[in-house]
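Just wondering, can you check both lines?
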Amino acid sequence: MRTVVQAVLVVAVAEAVLCLLVLCATRVVRNRRERSLRHTATAVRHLVVETAGGESPSAGAALAVLDRRAWRAVEPTVTRLLNRVKGGSHRALTEVLVRRGVVDRALADAARPRSLRRARAATLLALTGPSLRADPERGPEARRVLHTLLGHRSVTVRETAVRALGRLGDSTSARLLLGTLDAPRPVAPGLVGDALVRIGPAGVEALTAAAGDGDEQYRALAVELLGLIKDRRAVPALSAALGDSAPMVRAAAAAALGRIGEPAAVGALGATVRGDPSGRVVAAAAEALGQIGDENAVPVLEETLRHGVYRPAHTAARALLRLGPPGRTALAGAARGPDPCGAHAREALSCAAGEGVPDR
C-alpha cells in the first residue's frame, strides 16, 4: 500500500514539475516573441510617422508592402493613430489599410456568425469611417453591412455599429439610427445621439421629422440634437416645437434655438416667454434670447424680469446683460425698483462688474 501511495505522489510531483516547466517555457517563448515584435515595430515605426505626417510619399507604399511579420508588429500603431488624426493623415493611413486588405477583411468579417469578429470588424470600420465615406466602392458597402448589424442580438455589436455609422453616416443612416431607439433591441440614447451629431447636417432632415413624432422623450432628444448640430435649416421645426404639448420638448426646443443663434427665432421665443405656462420653458426661452443677442428682445426680457417669478426673472436678468447697452439700461432701471425684481437686476449687474462682462 505504501508503495502505491509513493508511486502516486511521485507521479503527481512529476506532473506538477512538468506543468511548471511548460509554463516557464511558454512564458520565455512569449516574452521573446514580444521583444522581437517590439524591436520590429520600432524599426518600421518611422514609416507610420512619415505616412501620417505626409513627409514622404513613398512611406505609405513601403508600409503597404511590409512582410507579414513586420506588418503584424506595426498594425496596432496604425489603428491607434486613426483615432487621433484627421484630414490627409487619416486618409493616408486608411489607404494603407485598404492596400493591405484589412478593410476588405473587416467587411467580410462583419457578415460572419461570430459576434466577436463582427464587433472587431465594426470597430475597424468606425476607425476608418471618416475616410471610407468618400470611397465610392467600400463606403456604401460598409454602410450596408453596418445597417444590418443594428439589429444584431449582441449589444456590443449593435453599439459598435452605431459608433461606426456616426463616422460613415448619411441621411439614410440617420433615419435608421433614430429607429434603434424604440427597436426590439434598442441602443443607449447617448450613443445614438453622439452618432447623429457626428453625422451632422446630413441628419437634419431625419431629426426634424422626429421632432414632431413619437413620445415626448424621443421628440425632446431630436430637438436637442438639432441644437447641437446648429444647422439653420432646423429653425422652423424648432420654432414649431415651442408649441409642443410636453414642457420637456418646449424647453429643449428653446435651448436648441439659443445654441443655433438665429435672429429669426426671436419672435417665436418672445411669444414663448410671454405665454408659456411652464416656468422651466420660460426660463429656457429667456436664456435663448440672451444667447441670440438681438436687442429686439429687451422689452420681453424686461417684462419677464418685472413679473417677479424667481427662475424666469433671474434668467431674464442675466440674459439682458448679453444684449449690450440697451439691456444694461433696462437692468439699471429695474435695479431701482422694488424687490424681487430689483434684487435680480442688482445681482446681475454686480456679477457683471465682478466678472468684467464687457458691453457689446
